[in-house]
Amino acid sequence: MTSNDVLDTDRSVKALATTTAGAPVLLDGLSRVYGATRALDQFSLDVHPGEFVALLGPSGCGKTTALRMVAGFDRPDTGQILVDGVDVSRVPAQKRDMGMVFQSYSLFPNMSARDNVAFGLRLRHQRSGLRRQRASELLELVGLAEHTAKYPHQLSGGQQQRVALARALAIEPRVLLLDEPLSALDAKVRAELRDQIRALQQRLAITTLFVTHDQEEALSMADRVCVMSRGRVEQIASPAELYAQPSTAFVAEFVGVSSRVPVNRHGDQGDHVELFSRDVAIRGDAPAANAGPLDALLRPEDVTVRVDESGAGVVQHRSFLGATSRLEVGFADVVIKTDVRSSDAELFELGTRVTLDLAAHDVLVTPRRMPSVQG
Amino acid sequence: MAFTSSLDTASSPRGVEGRATPSGGSFLRSVRTFVPVVPFLLYVTLGLGIPTYIIATLAFQTRAGQFTWHNIKVITSGGQYLLGFETSIKLAFVTAVIPGVVGTILAYAIAQSSHEAFKRVIAAASGVLANFGGVNLAFMFVASLGPAGIATAWLSHLHLNPYNHGWTLYKFTGVALVYIYFQVPLMVLIITPALNGLRAQWREAASNLGASKWQYWRYVGVPVLTPPVLGSMFLLFGSGFSAYATAEALTGGTFALTPIQIGSILQGNVISGQENVGYALGLGMIVILLISVVAYALLQRRTSKWLRA
Amino acid sequence: MTQAEIGDYFLAHEMTTKPVTTNGEPRAPRSRTRRRPRFGRGVVLVLAAMYFLIPLYAALDFSLKNIQGHFSLSPLTQIAAQPGFAAAVGLSFRLSVVTLVIEMLLMVPTVIYVHLRLPRFRRIMEVITILPIVIPPIVLILGVLQAVRPYQWISSSPYLLAVVYVVLAMPFVYRSLDSGLGALDLKTLVEASRSLGSGWISTMWRVLVPNLRTALLSASVLTLALVFGEFTMAQLDLWTTVPVWIYNSSSNNPHVVTAVAMMFLIAMWLVLTIIVSLDRTHRRGKGQSN
User: Fold this and answer.
1) Mutate which of A64, A97, A101, A106 to disrupt the B interface (most B C-beta within 10 Å)?
2) Which CATH number goes with the domain that contains C122?
3) Which of B149, B267, B282 is facing C58, going by the closest CB pair?
């Protein structure tokens, strides 16, 4: 990247004017029911100014519903949406001053890229010369300077999404909303755009809500991630904390890799379990005494392994992942995944007996799942 | 930091355009790949090509086979044949524009419905009504709005009998009314795919950027729908222009339209010296229809670029 | 009927393609709370319904009256007894069968072959199959009659009509087959079948035709509608098919004749509705065709 590029983008960024600085967004107790389905259940989220929050979850978890409510395309049954302290729940979508990027096909087909980007400005009665200039600058910002006159059907998926982003930013929104903008794109394009969107967002410091079902996307882009399931919040935390300290079983299994091991309770207060012949504390609130049998959820890095002829585990599978190799160890009727350095991997041939130990000081537990086919 | 991607130059907006035909190889080999479509081509030549050729050539011939402009002159220089063309074009135009607009509005109203069963019934109904054989349709209208028709009787009770006010089913407005009956469902059938191509995201994106309902329609909705609606109207024009059975069954061949006149000539009502005028009329119809269909095709290209992108 | 051809052309596509969905995910039902659009829409639909249903009702009413003008079911019972009716139905039926046979034998292998081996030819075929709209029946019959005049054995056969009907039907038959084939992974199916030892004819008959059921069905139904509704060429070629019979008999007993017209209309409506709903449920339950 040459210094010219840096100068040009600086100018473009300045052109966006500093009123774009993000506003705080508060979602308070949002609920929405469709017939028999509870799409959102007392959903609350506090987004700080300029923060990038990802709404992460499987299909149907309510993340898109929540986003559309913020945008104004859906009305909550209960609850409020406050932007910069002002309740916008009754404000129609076109007056909310938010920029939205949809999953696909949202560019107006009868307008060129430049006219698409300038559309919001045109509605605000900006003079045509000024509009064109602003639109061109924004398109330059997203790297499409040579494509301003092209129509959407002449652009690739990735290019279309970049135009959509420029269009959303043109109106200098207080909040930027992205509804799975990368899901319809090829993996390679997705990865590139991911970085570029994040970089732009940080530069402009716009409060951003990003919906995705791809945990990699959420973890790599967001300041905080809100994991959702069935209309409720599972956990809201930074990516690192989410990964290392999942607070519910759903999060532990949805984000990253985890293994389930049946454990028995231990200790007088019922807040310890026995795992790998050790007494381990339960992370967070211990389940009630009569909650039934429990499983512990372990990340590969929570477990250490060493060769031991009298060990209780047996290596069943080994995959080479680059710097590390993943071992699948059969232990007490379950399979536990753990990683070793690839340079040590040759010690762990299939069938080797091993001893497992816990590297963490507490462990997440969840009601035991009956034996299933999957590992 | 510029947004560039090595993928930009490499990627194409569309998928690959189908596999290429076997390239290279001998000339014989490429000819051989066309052999299986010969029956089809032959059939089309015989069934369509030759009759058209005959019409095109006989239009310029006297009964004896000599070249002449006479036939063309007869149909273009005043008199009943020119009148026939004028009436046909007027009729086709009226029954393209009115059903065009009405059909679009109707199709939009239907498309907005969220009841799947309803849409299915309407789809079948449109198909049926558009397919309505000219004879059956004509008779249905005679039974309802003919001089002795049921609807006429109802209107009589209300003292609104149209026949008392100089109207008749068997002239221009009557025929147009009957044509509209099948042109509207036809329009609904043609335009519905285009309406379904109007993406919800466009409306939402426009709204998000600050557009009211009217602004959305003005800047996005109407411009996007104009090519398909216009194109469909051309198709409707063609349909109204070439219809024979409806007018024939309705008016018993008395209404002066070009197709009726051709029919009349075929049934033997021809002045000596003008035997081949029928072919000139046919050629004239082909030319007008060709223009219509080409206009439709050009507008359709624009439509498919926008409504499927 | 030209507008029938154009209508069928679009109906064929509608009947053989999957309904368009906006995204992959199921859409939440419309949550807009405004009631105004629904009212306006209702008015439009009601007015339209009136315009279309009143003539239908009037015709039905007319057809269920006897000569004195009172309500009676006698027209229905008299239908079969009308002179020439049975013959007309028989002729129309025979023409349908012949048209269907020629059409399928001609178009099915051709379209399959083009999809498989000559994809570029598809464009040409699209253009060719639009041509019958440029050369409507009234004009076509003009040229055809002149072309066959020297050949007595052709011009005196009613099946000449069938031959020309195949041309009239080409737009929607091609469209149906084209859509139906487009939905299949044709190359894979054929290769799989051939690799298992099946010859070309066997492949077409056992593998492709069953997968093209919807397309073939819609093409056949539309052809049937075409033949039983085609008046222009039949009249001018001097053959008494059902529409011609209706026209000629109109003065005899108008009630009966109108009853026949309505009967065919209702029959067609029933068939098309069944086809369209069968087709949708069939597709929904079918899943992948492979």
Assistant:
1) A106
2) 1.10.3720.10
3) B149
